[in-house]
Amino acid sequence: MNTINWHDRAKSIRIDGRAFINGERVNAISGITFGKHSPIDGRKLTQVARCDDEDVNVAVLAARTAFEDRRWAGKSPAERKRVMLKFAELMRTNAEELALLETLDMGKPIKYSLATDVPASAKCIQWYAEAIDKIYDEIAPTNDTSLALITREPVGVVAAIVPWNYPMLMASWKIAPALAVGNSVILKPSEKSPLTALRMAELALEAGIPEGVFNVLPGFGHEAGSALALHNDVDCVGFTGSTRIGKKIMEYAGQSNLKRVWTELGGKSPNIVCADCVNLDAAVKASIGSIFYNQGQSCNAPSRLFIEASIKEKFIEKALAMMPAYLPGDPLDQATNMGAIVDSIQLNTVIGFIESGKSEGAQLLAGGNQTRVESGGYYIEPTLFNNVKNSMKIAREEIFGPVLSIFTFTDLNEAIQEANATAYGLNAGLWTSDLRKAHQTARALRVGTVHVNQYDNDDITVPFGGYKQSGNGRDKSLHAMEKYTELKTTWINLD
After folding, report:
1. pLDDT at 2 over 70
2. C-alpha span between 107 and 316 (Å, rounded)
3. Which helix (H) or strand (E) is 83 found in, with range?
4. Which of 274, 277, 299, 381 is the catalytic position?
5. Are 278 and 453 spatial neighbours (Cβ–Cβ below 8 Å)?
């Protein structure tokens, strides 16, 4: 068993909060910084460069110059593959440092940062590296006197704007396919969790990704993020975050150069448990584990639980018995299953939703309180509401916290209608032993991913994204590479 004393490691870790532009660590041009504090206990971690439109201009120029002189795009697929494989390996070599930065930055348990976030991020980089020289272009079936070539080319300068809940993984999902096909990339991490992104940039340079090809601008969304989305020399924005901000970025694209915008936005995912569920214990374990994983701060979290009436009482009994395992603990303790909320703003947001649930008549079965206040950090008990109605705020809006709402159904068609009665369409779950029911329900649910008799099984080979206001485009899989390429037809007359 890993016996690292993470508290000792945290005391000795050196953190550089400067931006990374054109292969160098630099201060913001304004010289302005902001303090980064850990949600674990409020400790100050470092000062971080507060980049704005001036820094964006410098980074975009560096990225554009690198793209136009083809120092990366012009490399053979085999060479880009070699460099990115080294990048992935360096992430694995530095796994403990990256995991500690991730946990200190946003409060998730260290065991998950080390066992899940770092390996999954490195695998993502590796997977797209291995895909580079395995994707072929096309020849159209024209007549004998013509040759029509259909080729994919990098789109140019890509801005990747990512959220705070999975800083490393969300960054990897964007930068890996964008870099693989030859783009230059500017990564804007959330101001709430910028530290692993900055370290990844150093590792990318060490691996051999040329200066200017991968840049990282920490700062606030309304400053650096907006400037990137409005910049006329940014060709594409890949964004993961809230639906509200996703809409703004699409507006900014229209106001500037009509850059393409790919969004992965919010969710309010339904999880339907039928009375003919194959294994009720498995359904309970997956339902509880998935909503409280990462402190509920997951866009795909199954926050709306629909239980068939005949098994509801038994399901709730089993769920309540499991919940103590998710009581918040010290994120630097390897036994902890649920850590800290990312900051005081999000803490107060979650508490506000809990209060609205109680005031609107939902039955609070467990949790609902702030805890570990003496630590100086931000923690909320796992919370379970019963008898929730679709008209309630906790049923309609994304909470992004450890709050689960239970609905009751007797007719599956009605449950499907309620499950679809949301602006979002990211994920859904279904538990049944009836294969026909599984197929028909999966088709009826208006979401990007339907989990059947499991929840959260995942692999880099499958696309991730949603319907409706959960966004457009897809992360992961070969489909993600489509977002960062242009299709060109070259028509040659052979007559």
Report:
1. no
2. 28
3. helix 77-93
4. 299
5. yes
Size of the chain in residues:
495
Q: Please identify which of the residues 264, 308, 381, 418 carries the catalytic annotation.
A: 264
Quick check: helix, strand or coil at residue 491?
Answer: strand
Q: What is the pLDDT of residues 111-120, one digit of tens each?
A: 999 999 999 9
- For residue 408, the cross-strand partners are 307
Cβ atoms of residues 472 and 448 within 8 Å? no
Q: Bridge-partner residues for 272, per DSSP?
A: 306, 430
- Give the tokens for residue 126: 């590796």
Q: How far apart are the first and last CA of the chain?
A: 71
**Which pTM does this prediction carry?**
0.96
User: Would the pLDDT of 223 be above 90?
Assistant: yes
Q: How many CB atoms lie within 10 A of CB 9?
A: 16
Alpha carbon 398 to chain centroid, angstroms: 15
With a CB cutoff of 8 Å and minimum separation 6, the contacts of 363 are 385, 386, 387
Give the residue among 259, 254, 382, 289 at the shortest CA–CA distance from 329.
Answer: 382
Tens digit of each residue's pLDDT (9 = 90 or more) over 306-356: 999 999 999 999 999 999 999 999 999 999 999 999 999 999 999 999 999
Q: How far apart are CA 188 and CA 238, in angstroms?
A: 10
Sequence letter at residue 228: L
Q: Is 264 a catalytic residue?
A: yes
Non-local (6+) Cβ contacts of 315 within 8 A are 273, 280, 283, 284, 307
| Three-state DSSP class for residue 4 | coil
Burial 103-112 (b: 16+ CB within 10 A, else e): bbbbbbbbbb
- Asked if residues 257 and 412 have their Cβ atoms less than 8 Å apart, the reply is no
Residue whose structure tokens are 């701060």 = 297
On the question of pLDDT at 3 being above 90, the answer is no
Q: How far is CA 166 from the centre of its chain?
A: 5
Query: In the chain, how long is the greatest CA-to-CA distance?
Result: 82
Q: Is 191 a catalytic residue?
A: no
Q: Which residues contact 365 (CB under 8 A, 6 or more apart)?
A: 316, 320, 384, 385, 386, 406
Q: Within its chain, how far is the Cα of 194 from the centroid?
A: 14
Rounded CA gap, 244 and 58, in Å? 28
**What's the DSSP call for residue 464?**
B
∠382-384-390 over CA atoms, to 5°?
A: 130
| pLDDT average, residue stretch 378-405 | 97
Residue listed under structure tokens 């930065």 = 101
φ and ψ at residue 410, rounded to 5 degrees? -120, -20
Would you say 344 and 373 are in contact if contact means Cβ atoms under 8 Å apart?
no
Percent of the chain with pLDDT over 90: 99
